[in-house]
Every structure is written in C-alpha cells, then in structure tokens.
C-alpha cells in the first residue's frame, strides 16, 4: 500500500520550497516587473533613462512594421500549433498501431526534439538551400522555383516546417502515453463494429486523450511564440522584407541591435499580453471539449 510522507514541521516544507521561490523571483518575476517599468522609459545604450510615459506604446501603435510583425507571428503560431498537433497525432497513431519495431519508430520520431533549435535550423538551412539543398531539385522538378532567401512566402514556409519538425517529438511523447492508456476494450469493440482506423482515431482515441491534447495546445502555443527564435536567427534573420520577423525576433533586434531598450520592453509587454489573451481563449474554448472522466 502506497504511503504519503507528511511533513511534521512547516519549516521542512518551506526549506524545500525556498530554492524554487528564489529562482522564480530572481529569473522570472523581477525581470518581468523590470520590463514593465522600463517600457515607460526611453533607455539609452549607456543606461541613462528618461521617463516618457506611454510614448513607447504609442510608437508601437503607429508602427506599420510592428503591426506586420504581430500579424506574421499570429499566423506563424497558428500554423505551427495546428501543424504540430496534426502531424504528431497522425504519427502517434501509426506508431501505436504498428506491431513490429514500435520502439524504433518511436525513437525515430522523438530524436529531432533532442536537437537544439539552432542545430535544427542549420539542418533545414542546408536541406532547403536554393543551390545546395537536398530538397531543392525535387521541388523544382515539380515546377516550383525555390528561392526562399528572396521570397517571403517561401521563407516563412521553411521556418514553419522546421519549427513543426522540431516540436513533433515532444508531442509524440505525451500522445503515445495517453493513447496507450485508452482501454483496449474500446479498441476491440470499435474493431468488431467495423469502425475504420481514421474514425477510430477521431471518435475513440481523441475524446479520451483530450486532456493531454489540451495541455499540448497550450505548450505548443508557448513554443511557437517564445521557442522559435533560433530558427529565424539562423535561417532568415527576419527577412526577406520582414516576412519572418516574428515578435520574439523583432524584440531581440530592437534591444540588442538598435539598443532601444525602452521600446523593446514595451514590445515584451505586448508579446506577453498577446500570448496571455490567446491562452485565455484556448482555455475557454478547449476546456469545453476536454473529457476528464468521472
């Protein structure tokens, strides 16, 4: 029979929590408060600051370039989240259904997640290179001219595909665990009733896996907005013509290339607000469809 350790002294529990609280305060909460504070200042390279109120936010509202960055980021995040979920669910189902070599297929689908984002970006940089890329000639044989260094749509597509490929492994880890927890009796009943594989996936597995899928939608959204910086930095540098200038990369350029720390802080606050609103909408919409049993 499993037992649960109960602390007799509150100080023991406090002692275990202190390291986590310190790390969270120093590296999360204080920087966040500082960013909000700096967003109301004009901060120079030497550290001098002048209070400007909401002028930095007005500058963002009036900036067409920044509006384009917001639009690109939302589109990019939407495609990444939907693409990752769809590809991961399909791969997970195939791995779950295979009879021989399941572990090998599982490892093959997970290993890209182990790559650092910069390395994953370099892989796609060479795979899709207009002259050196392995995929270039087959694509051009289909009548499609490959030049994503100068074509904004192609550049965004390549970065999006790279971001999806990198994140699939993370999702497969959770999905395969959730799918293995589906009662075998349901699967056998569906097979006896003549339910096809695709319908079985959609009507049997997905509803039962919905809490896990809901969690992954949230994590993939965070990844799309905050974890894809390296792909843009390595592959496109935000170009061509701002086609891949997503918010997290635009924030970096503003702070560390143009040294406009006040404006960069305002952009970080806006980015947090955009992601917060999207997360709230996702919680409100997806929780209605998540089945937690009981």
Summed up:
With 294 residues, this protein is mainly α.
What can you tell me about this protein's structure?
With 294 residues, the chain is mainly α. It has one domain (64-286): MetI-like fold. Helix content is 72%, strand content 2%. The chain contains 12 helices and 2 strands. Strands 1-2 form a two-stranded antiparallel ribbon. A hairpin with a 5-residue loop joins β1 (41-43) and β2 (49-51). The protein starts with 9 loop residues before the first helix and ends in an 8-residue tail after the last helix.
Number of structurally distinct domains: 1
What is the general shape? globular
Strand content: under 5%
Secondary structure tally, helices: 12
Q: Point out poorly predicted stretches.
A: none
Number of strands: 2
Distance between the termini: 23 Å
The percent range for helix content is over 70%
Which CATH architecture would you pick? Answer: Orthogonal Bundle
**Overall mean pLDDT:** 87
CATH fold naming: MetI-like fold
Biggest sheet layout = 2 strands, antiparallel
Chain-wise SSE layout:
Blueprint: H1 10-38, E1 41-43, E2 49-51, H2 55-61, H3 64-97, H4 102-114, H5 117-127, H6 136-141, H7 152-180, H8 184-192, H9 197-226, H10 229-235, H11 247-256, H12 261-286
Antiparallel strand pairs: 1-2
Helix pairs in contact: 1-12, 2-12, 3-4, 3-7, 3-9, 4-7, 5-7, 5-10, 7-9, 9-12, 11-12
